[in-house]
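---------- Forwarded message ----------

FYI, see the NOP2/Sun RNA methyltransferase 3 record below. Original note from H. follows.
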Amino acid sequence: MRLPPAAARLLPAPLPAGAGLWPRRGAARPSEQVENKTKGKLQKQICQVVLDHFEKQYTAELGDKWTSVRDVLTCPSCWQYAILLNKFSQSAELENTLRVKGYHLAFRGTLPYLPRSLKCYISRTPRRFPAQKHQTGKLKEYYLLNAASVLPVLALEVKDGEDVLDLCAAPGGKSVTILQCAYPGQFHCNEYDDLRSRWLKQTMESFIPDPLVNLITVSKQDGRQIGDFKPESYDKVLVDAPCSNDRSWLFSSDTQQAKLRLIQRKELSSLQFQLLRSAIKALRPGGSLVYSTCTLSKAENGDVINLILKSCANVMPVDISEMAKAVSQEFTFLCDTQQHELLVLPEKGKAWGPLYVAKLKKI
């Protein structure tokens, strides 16, 4: 899951953005260790300001686990890409090709929720399948994504006929994934930024056939206000929130911009809290909400959820530990999380994430 600056996500005014990757614990300086692994053009793209910041923060928050996580995040050649098949444009030939190339179906365990129509292929070997270009009138056969990005959708457990809100929807990967799983009664995909909203619409047109695509509402509202505009309107809400985006921030080429983001980063948790408050208002009693980010930051993950649970008497945590257990062969999780949350840690051979997921229910 790769999130852009928060300003480009939901808000009228520029807010904290994009994100990065980090060095590791140990005797050698972060810059020296990265230098050994990254050559030429790639090595020049790593932002030392971000490396230093993440090294300090994540060593404190993750301890020894930060070493292996950092090794993956600072080595793009280790990164892996999953292939989410489009059920509206499937071919047996494509699946055969994937198997021949060494791909296999992810999510093979006994999950609490796993629709047969959802097919996501992964490979243990770092490789990238060619992307398909948008062609008007022709549906794409697959969507390339980080396999961990499917987990928030599996946690949401959308069923046919339910009214669903994807609060921070662009570029549209999770919306596409939801539609591989079920046919919502009302599907509302929100994206404030005009350019990204057009990108979201194009994604829908690339993967979803007429007339189904015409039943999807794509809006450009401030996500913090949707709960006031549409109170108790949805059975399920996904908040894939603007965050620090650790996987990309490390490679910021503009050092001054990276320094500015370090300052703005402190504001992100406030934005995330406001989005969650809005999402809770938009939920019907008995409805479920899934919150996700692609950062390791405790301040943007567990701290935000804990604040919501303390300040909102009408929500309760939902246990997702069975889902995590069922996919533990494909993903590595941080051990000391609560039952209503999980944090995917990238490691070599399982280079998915980082991704945080938490599930809540409105009562």
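H. also flagged this: Residues 255-282 form the longest helix (28 residues).
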